[in-house]
Amino acid sequence: MDHEQFKLKSVQGDGRGAVKDKLPSADRIRHAAKDLFATNGFHQTSMSELAAAADMSVGLIYRSFKSKAEIIEAIVHADFDEKIADLERIRQRLGTGEITIEKSIEELFLHAMRDSDEALSFDILAEGSRNERVGQTIGKMCERLRSYLRGFALAANPSLAGDQLEGAAELMLGCMFGLGHRRLAMPRLDASQTAEQSARMMVAALRAL
User: What is the CA radius of gyration of the chain?
Assistant: First the structure.
């Protein structure tokens, strides 16, 4: 079988649905790794298990990635690219007047809650605290988010500058991280209610500065 023509079967019940056809080797490895890391944990997943899930040899995996840490970096890059694309769509809708700043931040928070794979995210953050290279990758991706968050903060309060603007971006980033890891806290509000209430309070706080 030509590995580049391999058809990755969708995992039933994971919400992703569609079959991923003809994925390049690196993407196929990344998709398989996300499923295994989320289910079994990063360190508990062996390369042989990953090779079986991706339907390729261990040697072929090492042709694309030198280590499991590099696979995590690829997962981080891909996930943040999706987040940035979401932020850009929200920013454009805000810019055209289609939605208000309150609705923009509400959608921002809602995406953070709905797109989070908490088990995998915790494992990646833990690895980032142990592995300097992974940690730096996460840090660089967060800086990409901050550039958008500053824009949303300024849309709520154009007078923000300097430390106040940076503080606003840090607060919004912290809210995104926290809301994306809320399931284990057994929240009393659903995602939509939480996003709406949090956005209203966020905008009120920004305008009060």
Answer: 19
Angstrom distance (rounded) from CA 160 to CA 33: 42
Distance CA 58, CA 96 (A): 49
SS3 12: coil
Contacting residues for 79 by C-beta, under 8 A, at least 6 apart: none
Distance (Å, whole) CA 20 – CA 168 = 39
The answer to whether 59 and 42 are in contact (CB under 8 A) is no
Closest CA to 68 of 36, 93, 90, 20: 36
In our burial notation (b when 16+ CB lie closer than 10 A, e otherwise), range 22-46 reads ebebebbbbbbbbbbbbeeebeebe
Q: What local confidence, expressed as pLDDT, does residue 18 receive?
A: 33
Quick check: 16 and 82 in contact, CB under 8 A? no
Residue pair 184/139 in contact (Cβ under 8 Å)? The answer is: no
Q: Provide the pLDDT for residue 166.
A: 98
Backbone dihedral angles phi then psi of residue 99, each to the nearest 5 degrees = -135, 155
User: 33-72: per-residue pLDDT in tens?
Assistant: 999 999 999 999 999 999 999 999 999 999 999 999 999 9
Give the distance from CA 156 to its chain's centroid: 24
